[in-house]
Amino acid sequence: EAGVAQSPRYKIIEKRQSVAFWCNPISGHATLYWYQQILGQGPKLLIQFQNNGVVDDSQLPKDRFSAERLKGVDSTLKIQPAKLEDSAVYLCASSFSLMQQFFGPGTRLTVL
Amino acid sequence: GIQVEQSPPDLILQEGANSTLRCNFSDSVNNLQWFHQNPWGQLINLFYIPSGTKQNGRLSATTVATERYSLLYISSSQTTDSGVYFCAVSGGGADGLTFGKGTHLIIQP
User: Fold this and answer.
1) How far apart are CA A33 and CA A23, in angstroms?
2) What is the CA radius of gyration of chain A?
3) Closest by CA position to B72, among listed B100, B30, B39
4) A91–B42 C-beta distance less than 8 A
5) To 10 degrees, the CA torsion angle through B65, A40, B80, B17?
6) For the segment A1-37, what is each residue's pLDDT rounded down to a tens digit?
7) Residue-wise over A32-61: b if at least 16 C-beta within 10 A, else e?
8) Is the pLDDT of residue B94 over 80?
9) Do residues A35 and A76 lie in contact, with contact meaning Cβ atoms separated by under 8 Å?
10) Which pLDDT tens digit goes with each residue over A48-67?
11) For the ranges A39-48, A70-79, B48-57, B86-95, which has the lowest average pLDDT?
12) Do the beta carbons of residue B17 and residue B31 sit within 8 Å?
């Protein structure tokens, strides 16, 4: 069984530019999560989807971050415009029936 | 929201030693997972254990939900066990995981 796929693995941009990350969850997993992990800290939840609906986006900085999951499978997370403090690893996770979550390899973003 | 505290923050051991990592949480949970984050940043699932005891090879975990803590045991440590170990929980109607700050484990040969 294939795991959670993410791309790109690394991205370097300058502040005020835009960037997008892609996630393909494990087949059959209805729930998809995006987390942000700043160096030296544990991951922090940004947004949770159940199929293609948003369940929890209370910690998503909505003035610059957006996410979508149009067909209930793949998801895209966008940052526009990026700030220096957005430098982090962005992790996508998926789960079946709101139980054990499985994480992808992450996208490491550096904002200069 | 739920608070998660992990201890110790850092642990340095010799190969072959045993260790116990602790996770305390502030409220009732319906999900508790232990992860190992390897040097490449990949979060590897170790246990899904909201209650009870599980074992997988040299690793075992126990969660005492009524007392709001979980323990991860690593026996006969190997250098490949090095990395950061995270405890993560969810509860109170939320499904997204709240992570602790992790325990940074270094196993020396």
Assistant:
1) 10
2) 13
3) B100
4) no
5) -60
6) 689 999 999 999 999 999 999 999 999 999 999 999 9
7) bbbbbbeeeebbbbbbbbeeeeebbbeebe
8) no
9) no
10) 999 889 999 999 999 999 99
11) B86-95
12) no
Would the CB atoms of A48 and B95 count as touching at under 8 Å?
Answer: yes
| Chain A nearest C-alpha distance from B94 (Å) | 8
Q: Report CA dihedral (A5, A8, A9, A12) to the nearest 10 degrees.
A: -160
Strands B59-64 and B31-37 turn out to be unpaired
Contact A103 B35 (CB under 8 A): yes
How many whole angstroms separate alpha carbon A46 and alpha carbon A67? 10
| Among the listed residues A50, A96, A89, A56, the one whose alpha carbon sits nearest the alpha carbon of residue A69 | A50
CA distances B16 to A94, A104, B69, B78, Å, are: 35, 31, 26, 6
State phi, psi for B6 to the nearest 5 degrees: -115, 145
User: Measured in whole angstroms, how far is the alpha carbon of residue B84 from the centre of its chain?
Assistant: 9
Identify the residue whose tokens are 């922090």.
Answer: A44
